[in-house]
């Protein structure tokens, strides 16, 4: 009875706090500027199935992709087991579905066990990759401190979780063999791994110890699950949720197409329109001039860029493909995304604590991302191409450039010359437009 | 026998219209193709191919103006929009239906960014057009000429490849040269930028430990290519500079696909 009560409290608190955090993140994402991604639903669903569910882009790198796949599939299957844990936890039953599902149950748990072994190996490898092997993309400056710790915490929790699963099943199997399990009768459950491990590892314990071990495994499992759930919103591990909506809403156009600013279009059309009266009051429906062109802070970015920020796995595939980063420039697309998330968290907390209009005199551009970083970008789209969860660092970089250039007129001097030339003579160099077809006769 | 004596036929749209004619296709030369000495040669190679195939084309000549690509990538949406709106007006006035560009940046901007602003025409990159002409049998290559058996590697321009997913057309064209087509360790979707995109062409790089074009040229040198084939005037400049940096001008030549083809077909 006590344990049922305890479980229900845990369940309510666990899910309650999670939903509270999710609503905070939703609010933060909705701070972004509007962007229409409601078109093309069929294509979007297809992309989500391929890229998120099917892990398509992960398989550009086969070894980490396979190892990740084990953890990923193990997670998907273990989630079904969670239903039973919740059923048992609330009702006080033991292996709620065992008799109801029969051989399907045995097959399901066996699958989970096998996947868990694979996931365990993968996790050990991932730990080694982060801490022993010198993988350059995990060693860059943005990967020190919290991001490094975060990466390890996830993997340690994963290990604890898997150990709990095997302790639970192994001890239960050993008990069942002696007819002492909470399940009536005696024999073997027939689960693929624990029917093998029980005789080896768990037969040395007496019944009392086994009962305790089984409970420790069970409670440990569910505690880690709730822990994980509530750790997600603070961690790169949030990608396990966000990968799905983020690929769904990803850009389906050619990657080379940059968006056109409709506000700028209106302004330019007015300049060309001889009948335009600059002092007239704007008519209904006309695009109003935004507070600023481009982005200085997170609220100037589109909601999709903000969703990107919460989706990033910090894997660094973008950065390792970035030509600027590879040649020692300050720019790292991963850092652009991580900075956006950090700043968004800060802005969101400010608004919650000090009211929606609070300004802290900081901004994404300047306090987090420097001008040097954004001017190093060649707009080559390698980062966008690489990202396994469909993040677009380039659109943030361009929005920041737009602010710098159009609002602060801060542009590297050679580029200022190039821009003047385009405005004066329709070419980035100082050649007269009238000479444009001289090449024909040269 | 080369027909150097044959003068290039490059009418402007205005001239054609004065003769009561319309071009089937507009050749958008681009700023590099018009003003950069190296890129002018590429423009001529494209024209030679168009002339040889008797394509009814025209250029805008002095009416052409920058698409606005470098302005947009440098963050100046105003300068871009001024260019775009004026260009679209001009092209619509001339009722242009189809455009071929000699530059992936022009290609990308005209194709992807102009339609939303009112443009309505088909845009192809010159490697796509050349490929189509070969496929239709209008451009016949009798072997690869001096390129036969040579090692050629294609450097994917970011704005043709990743930006627009055109990877095969340039390669199909190169296969017609009976040369050995070798891929660099990074190619197609994984190709490395030459370093010039995003308005970098017009400024010095930020502080780092290497120039991007050097990094990229190394890829080409590693595969022992005799020719680096390009499809973009900016890439061409960057790779040429890279080859100079390694003092390999004698061994490795950097040529646009249009030049390779017009050379092989002895146009
Ligand atoms: C839903 C269950 C999922 C689980 C349990 C899961 C688990 C994990 C774990 C434990 C890591 C850390 C590996 C490391 O230490 O480097 C990780 C990384 C990663 N995950 Fe997931 N993930 C899930 C879903 C997804 C999805 C849907 C995607 C989308 C394709 C994805 C993409 C990634 C990427 C790109 C990394 C970085 C891997 C690398 O550095 O190579 N994950 N995931
Ligand atoms: S688009 Fe910019 S940030 Fe992204 S890989 Fe290319 S240079 Fe790096
Ligand atoms: S943006 Fe994408 S590729 Fe880059 S670190 Fe984040 S998840 Fe990885």
What does it look like?
The complex is a heterodimer of chains A (442) and B (267). Chain A is mainly alpha-helical and 442 residues long. Chain A folds into 2 domains: 2-30 and 61-235; 31-55 and 291-409, Fumarate Reductase Iron-sulfur Protein, Chain B, domain 2. Chain A is 62% helix and 0% strand. The longest helix of chain A is centred in the middle third of the chain and has 32 residues, at 146-177. Chain A is elongated. The termini of chain A are far apart. Chain B is an alpha/beta fold and 267 residues long. Chain B folds into 2 domains: 3-131, Rossmann fold; 141-264, Rossmann fold (3-Layer(aba) Sandwich). Helix content of chain B is 41%, strand content 11%. Chain B contains 11 helices and 8 strands. Chain B has helices at residues 13-18, 30-35, 37-52, 69-73, 77-93, 104-113, 126-135, 168-175, 212-222, 233-245, 257-264; strands at residues 25-28, 57-58, 98-101, 122-125, 151-154, 180-182, 227-230, 253-256. In chain B, the strands form 2 sheets. A 4-stranded parallel sheet of chain B has the order 2-1-3-4. In chain B, strand 3, helix 6 and strand 4 (122-125) form a beta-alpha-beta unit. In chain B, helix 3 packs across helix 11, helix 7 (126-135) packs across helix 8 and helix 9 (212-222) packs across helix 10. The radius of gyration of chain B is 18 Å and the shape is globular. The mean pLDDT of chain B is 94. Classes of the chains: A mainly alpha (442), B alpha/beta (267). At the A-B interface, helix 10, helix 13, helix 17, helix 18 and helix 19 of A face helix 2, helix 3, helix 4, helix 5 and helix 6 of B. Bound molecules: protoporphyrin IX containing FE and iron/sulfur cluster (2 copies). The site of protoporphyrin IX containing FE (HEM) has 21 residues of chain A, from helix 3, helix 5, helix 6 and helix 9.
């Amino acid at each position: 009875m006590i344990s049922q009560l305890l479980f229900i409290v845990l369940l309510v608190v666990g899910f309650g706090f999670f939903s509270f955090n999710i609503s905070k993140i939703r609010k933060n994402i909705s701070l972004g500027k509007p962007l229409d991604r409601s078109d093309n639903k069929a294509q979007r669903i297809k992309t989500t199935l391929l890229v998120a569910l099917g892990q398509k882009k992960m398989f550009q790198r086969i070894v980490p992709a396979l190892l990740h796949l084990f953890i990923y599939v193990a997670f998907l299957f273990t989630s079904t087991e969670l239903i039973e844990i919740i059923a048992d936890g609330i009702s006080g039953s033991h292996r709620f579905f065992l008799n109801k599902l029969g051989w399907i149950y045995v097959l399901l748990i066996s699958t989970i066990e096998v996947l868990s072994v694979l996931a365990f190996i993968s996790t050990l490898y991932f730990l080694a990759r982060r801490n022993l092997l010198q993988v350059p993309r995990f060693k860059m400056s943005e990967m020190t401190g919290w991001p490094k710790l975060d990466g390890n915490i996830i993997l340690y929790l994963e290990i604890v979780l898997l150990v709990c699963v095997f302790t639970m099943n192994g001890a239960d199997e050993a008990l069942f063999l002696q007819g002492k399990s909470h399940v009536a009768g005696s024999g073997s459950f027939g689960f693929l791994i624990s029917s093998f491990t029980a005789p080896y590892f768990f037969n040395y314990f007496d019944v009392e110890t086994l009962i305790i071990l089984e409970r420790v495994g069970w409670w440990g499992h569910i505690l880690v699950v709730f822990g994980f759930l509530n750790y997600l919103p603070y961690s790169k591990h949030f990608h396990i949720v966000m990968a799905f909506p983020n690929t769904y809403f990803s850009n389906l156009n050619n990657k080379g197409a940059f968006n056109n600013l409709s506000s700028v279009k209106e302004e330019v059309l007015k300049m060309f329109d001889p009948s335009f009266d600059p002092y007239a009051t704007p008519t209904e429906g006309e695009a109003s001039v935004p507070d600023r062109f481009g982005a200085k802070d997170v609220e100037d970015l589109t909601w999709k860029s903000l969703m990107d920020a919460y989706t990033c796995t910090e894997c660094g595939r973008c950065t390792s493909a970035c030509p600027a980063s590879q040649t020692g420039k300050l720019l790292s697309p991963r850092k652009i995304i991580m900075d956006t998330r950090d700043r968004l968290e800060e802005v969101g907390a400010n608004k919650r604590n000090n009211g929606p209009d609070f300004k802290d005199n900081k901004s994404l551009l300047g306090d987090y991302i420097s001008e040097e970083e954004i001017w190093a970008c060649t707009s080559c789209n390698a980062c966008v191409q690489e990202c396994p969860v469909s993040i677009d660092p380039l659109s943030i970089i361009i929005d920041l450039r737009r602010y710098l250039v159009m609002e602060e007129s801060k542009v590297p001097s050679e580029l200022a010359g190039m821009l003047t030339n385009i405005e004066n003579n329709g070419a980035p160099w100082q050649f007269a437009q009238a000479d444009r077809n001289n090449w024909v006769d040269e | 026998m080369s027909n150097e004596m044959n003068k290039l036929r490059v009418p402007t749209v205005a001239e054609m219209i004065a003769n009561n004619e319309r071009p089937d296709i507009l050749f958008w030369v681009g700023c590099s193709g018009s003003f950069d000495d190296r890129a002018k040669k590429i423009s001529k190679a494209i024209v030679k191919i168009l002339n040889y195939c008797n394509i009814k084309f025209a250029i805008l000549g002095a009416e052409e103006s920058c698409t606005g690509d470098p302005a947009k990538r440098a963050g100046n949406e105003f300068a871009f929009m001024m260019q775009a709106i004026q260009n679209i007006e001009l092209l619509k006035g001339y009722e242009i239906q189809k455009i071929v560009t000699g530059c992936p940046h022009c290609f990308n901007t005209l194709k992807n960014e102009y339609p939303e602003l009112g443009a309505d025409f088909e845009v192809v990159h010159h490697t796509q057009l050349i490929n189509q002409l070969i496929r239709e049998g209008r451009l016949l290559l009798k072997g690869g000429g001096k390129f036969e058996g040579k090692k050629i590697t294609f450097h994917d321009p970011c704005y043709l490849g990743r930006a627009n997913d055109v990877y095969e057309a340039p390669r199909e064209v190169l296969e017609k040269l009976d040369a050995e087509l070798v891929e660099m360790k990074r190619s197609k979707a994984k190709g490395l930028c030459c370093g010039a995109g995003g308005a970098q062409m017009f400024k010095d790089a930020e502080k780092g430990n290497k120039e991007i074009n050097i990094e990229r040229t190394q890829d080409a040198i590693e595969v022992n290519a005799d020719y680096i084939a390009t499809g973009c005037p900016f890439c061409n400049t960057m790779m040429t500079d890279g080859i100079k940096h390694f003092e390999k001008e004698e061994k490795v030549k950097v040529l646009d696909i249009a030049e390779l083809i017009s050379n092989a077909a002895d146009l």
